[in-house]
Amino acid sequence: KYLSKFYSEPEKKNNTERNYIVVVEPGEEENLRCPTNDDFLLRFLRARKFNAERAFKL
Length: 58
What we know:
This protein is of the alpha+beta class. The chain is built from two helices and two strands. The chain has one domain. Helix content is 28%, strand content 21%.
């Protein structure tokens, strides 16, 4: 499994650091044909209020 950690933006109202983990199962990376850098992936997490399951469906 591959794990990536994402942290909330520092300008968040509560200024607390949150960890979010996205899991990519072995073999699934072959189907990924898009950028996988942190900036690109954070766009999906922000769109779904850092809910990794909902962002994955997006």
